[in-house]
Specification:
There is one protein chain. By secondary structure, the chain is α+β, with helices and mostly antiparallel strands. It has 9 helices and 13 strands. Strands 8-7-12-13 form a 4-stranded antiparallel β-sheet. Strands 5-6-11 form a 3-stranded antiparallel β-sheet. It has a two-stranded parallel ribbon with strand order 1-2. Strand 9 and strand 10 form a beta hairpin. The longest helix is centred in the first third of the chain and has 9 residues. The termini are far apart.
């Protein structure tokens, strides 16, 4: 079945066996995490092998009770069992159980707030499934669940411009084809904006970087939000980043880039980078060659 082939290997199917999640769960073996990553298993215990491989399976969304659910316009004419079409099944709220929730010890503070970010974005009228489960010509929704592991989707998410001003780079990041903050979701994601100057032998003479993400401080055993400079975190606004490179950049070109990173344990200083995708980048010529926008 085509739907099953699409789902197999998706991040929904790999929700419990993904290496990054396994590393985090080993550090903090919480039933709270297992509830979404292995929803068909007992959250109080590690998932058995079969259920671990299942991850977020068909039954997780389509059979939450005793009835098989489907979207209102789904073609269920050939289904071998009774199917209930529900308008809310394809609505954003259907995704909220695992993509909108607070910290277990402080539920009023969002651990993931993708739905409220979506409601404040410039695409609030576009449903989650439009981007993450795009339809086929026949009208069936895709089940590969494209998201942050899809480089093409990431690169369409932001509009990025870079301008040189003497020995600094001014970079503007704005939401583009995205209906939530970038990054959204768990605490293991961040953007990194960086610029550097190198000599003729490609030796780096100056380097500047700034991470963009959520930052928390410990407060009474719970996380307390301090700052949130993710792109689009406060609606469809532009984020400005200035990187100073000093005298080394005076007559030399400046290379810049924006990277999307998944990092271990919430982006702590010196955290291991699990993977990195360059979203945008370019080179701004030195003073002798003039200046331009990219």
């Amino acid at each position: 079945m085509e739907v099953a082939r699409e789902w197999r290997g998706s991040m929904h199917q790999r929700a419990y066996v993904d290496a990054d999640f396994a590393q985090s769960l080993a550090r903090e073996p919480s039933a709270f995490c297992r509830g979404c990553h292995a929803p068909e298993a007992d959250p109080e215990r590690p998932a058995p092998a079969a259920l671990a491989q299942l991850g977020v399976g068909c039954v997780t969304c389509h059979v939450p009770g005793d009835t098989v659910l489907a979207a209102p316009r789904s073609d269920v004419s050939k289904a071998p069992h009774e199917v209930l079409r529900l308008p809310g099944f394809a609505a954003d709220a259907a995704c909220g159980g695992c993509h909108e929730f607070g910290f277990p010890d402080r539920p009023e503070v969002a651990m993931q707030g993708t739905l409220r970010e979506h409601a404040a974005s410039g695409h609030a009228e576009t449903r989650c499934v439009t981007c993450h489960m795009p339809g086929s010509p026949g009208g069936r929704r895709g089940h590969a669940f494209a998201a942050s592991r899809d480089p093409a989707l990431l690169r369409r998410a932001l509009a990025v411009r870079a301008q040189r001003r003497d020995e600094s780079v001014h970079i503007e990041l704005a939401p583009a084809w995205v209906g939530h903050a970038v990054p959204t979701g768990d605490l293991f994601r961040r953007l990194v904006v960086e610029a550097e100057v190198a000599d003729a032998q490609w030796q780096v003479l100056a380097h500047a970087t700034r991470p963009l993400g959520r930052r928390f401080a410990a407060g009474g055993g719970a996380r307390v939000p301090v700052t949130d400079d993710r792109v689009g975190a406060h609606g469809p606004t532009t984020t400005q980043v200035v990187l100073e490179l000093g005298d080394a950049a005076r007559d030399r070109s400046i290379r810049w880039r924006v990277r999307y990173e998944r990092v271990a344990f919430g982006g702590e200083d010196g955290a291991e980078v699990w993977n990195s995708v360059t979203i945008a980048g370019g080179e701004l010529p030195g003073r002798a060659k003039g200046r331009r926008m990219q």
